[in-house]
Amino acid sequence: MERVAISLAGTLLQPVLVLAPLAAAGSLDVARRDGVIVAFALLAMFACLAESLASQPIALRPGRSEAPASLPYLTGLALLLCFWAGVAERGLSPEPASGLLVSGGGAGLLLLGVGLRILAIRTLGAWFVSEVRVVAGQRLVTYGIYQFLRHPSEAGTLCLGFGGGLMLGSKVALVVAGGLLLPSVLWRIRVEDRALAHHLGEEFHRHARSVSALIPRWAPPAWR
User: Fold this and answer.
1) What does the pLDDT look like over 88-108, one tens digit per residue?
2) In this predicted model, what pLDDT tens digit does every residue of 35-68 receive, in sequence order?
3) Which domains, ranges and CATH numbers included, belong to the chain?
4) What integer best gives the mean pLDDT of the chain?
5) What span, in angstroms and rounded, lies between the C-alpha atoms of 224 and 121?
6) CB under 8 Å to 106, separation ≥6 — which residues?
7) CA distances (Å), 103 to each of 37, 38, 59, 141, 157, in order?
């Protein structure tokens, strides 16, 4: 019950968070009149609720962090900056820059990002953590979504950033996604792959040779 209450509280705070630039500019009335901004805020609420409810209590076991503790926060901040840039540009521009088709495609990319992150969370269960950590006895997960992608959570994060920019028709948000979010995600992938290779050796290298990091190949390994 406590977990559900925390999830709901975080969900209800999402519109406040993503619409902060318009609130600061005194332009919240623009958000109420713009259906795309309203839909974007609702999707942000849905993403927060779905991810919170899919998460499980973390399996706290001894292990050394393989990356700076600030890395997850940097990635989260980069994603938030994408959202803020998109909302600000759309809300403060005289005319929206995107049509219905582009906004719809962006919304679809956002939902894909949510789906990828949920699948990653559900597959790893209590092993899903924000920091890069490999503990003694941990096995490489190669089933579920991980038979198609080595880093589905990171792929989902990129879909959220670029999808939000497209949905809001914001060139600035897309620049932020490419200039801040993408490097942060690639940095995490590099650190995580290096840690897995160090701890798991050939088991990881076999998986890496057959499964790509962010973009799935045409057929899963079992079909080749």
Assistant:
1) 898 888 776 667 889 999 999
2) 888 899 889 889 888 888 887 765 555 555 556 7
3) 2-223 (1.20.120.1630)
4) 81
5) 26
6) 98, 162, 163, 164, 165, 166, 167, 168, 169
7) 10, 12, 39, 35, 18
